Amino acid sequence: MGRTGRSMSRRQFIRVSAGTMAVLGGAASRLFAGGSDRIRVGLVGCGSRGMGAVRNCVDSSPNVEIVALGDLFQDRVAAGLALLKKEDDKDWSSSQPWRHVDQVKVTPDTCFTGFDACQKVISCGVDLVLLATSPHFRPMHLKAAVAAGKHVFMEKPVAVDTVGIRSVLASSELAQQKGLAIVAGTQRRHDPKYVEVMKRVIRDCEDIATPEQMPKFLGRNLFMLLTPRPSAKAKQQVTQGSEQKPATP
Ligand SMILES: NC(=O)c1ccc[n+]([C@@H]2O[C@H](COP(=O)([O-])OP(=O)(O)OC[C@H]3O[C@@H](n4cnc5c(N)ncnc54)[C@H](O)[C@@H]3O)[C@@H](O)[C@H]2O)c1
Fold it and tell me: How far is the CA of 140 from the centre of ligand 1 (A)?
């Protein structure tokens, strides 16, 4: 999720989040219009990305609270909660050390394990559910969240087979009817930098890849194109530095 200013109202938060990410279900500007000034968030799937998603979400506004955690396994929930309670911790997905322990409102009563953990997180009075399990469960978790009237952020991939994809599309339609937002973690596809580079590559590189080959060609290369590289001068300094080092015995 994108990082935004910390002095943001609940409504601004949703508007900015929706503007910077892929909203499948739409209707984001109508969210929380009549709610309290807190966004209560529940996480399902306390793995690497789940923890990252919680941090990104809480980082985005002081009005966000993480109130429930769910996972198949007790040790994953415990490890996740311990991480969220660890002030100043920093992982690869966050640009700043974690300083929002005060926004972690999870209690033993709102930690859930087992295959019904998702349903229990949803039933905790949350506004937004983060779905970050392995993708096989995503369609059924999404369906349950939308049925319960919750907004959703879900990691990619959103499904692993056609049955799952159809289910996700049906949930997306229902979400739209209910005025719920579904945001997927495919935000790079909507990042103006990426979109512009993709347009240019497609325009200028027709001779090296056909339109059918293009998505595969673009996947890794696009990422590399947009990754800042050390300048020639910086590279030279590194090389010179290593040349000056005494040889190891
Ligand atoms: N890690 C990344 O860098 C990254 C980046 C982008 C997308 N993703 C996507 O995010 C998702 C999660 O990835 P991860 O790396 O965090 O995986 P992970 O294995 O570290 O975490 C997944 C967690 O979900 C739990 N889980 C599985 N099924 C469950 C269920 N039915 N109910 C409740 N909990 C369940 C597992 O026990 C585990 O703790 C995947 O779809 C992955 O493709 C990951």
Answer: 15
Ordered by start, the domain boundaries in the chain are 10-187, 191-231
**Positive or negative, the Cα torsion across 218, 220, 222, 225?**
negative
CA of 241 to the centre of ligand 1 (A): 41
CA distance 117 to 112: 5
- Taking the C-alpha atoms of residue 225 and residue 243, their distance in angstroms, rounded to an integer, is 29
| Contact between 124 and 42 (Cβ < 8 Å) | yes
Q: How many angstroms does the Cα of residue 29 sit away from the middle of ligand 1?
A: 29
Q: What is the SS3 assignment for 78?
A: helix
- Before 157, cis peptide (omega within 30)? yes
Q: What letter would DSSP give residue 227?
A: S
pTM, 2 dp: 0.75
Instruction: Locate 120 and state its tokens.
Output: 């229990």
Superfamily of domain 10-187: NAD(P)-binding Rossmann-like Domain (3.40.50.720)
Burial class (CB in 10 A: 0-12, 13-18, 19+), 209: middle
% the chain with pLDDT above 70 = 65
Question: Which of 121, 133, 153 for mutating ligand 1's site (highest number of atoms within 8 Å of CB)?
Answer: 133
75 CA to centre of ligand 1 in angstroms: 14
Q: How confident is the model at residue 191 (pLDDT cuts 50, 70, 90)?
A: confident
CB atoms within 10 A of CB 180: 24
Residue nearest to atom 3 of ligand 1 (CA): 49
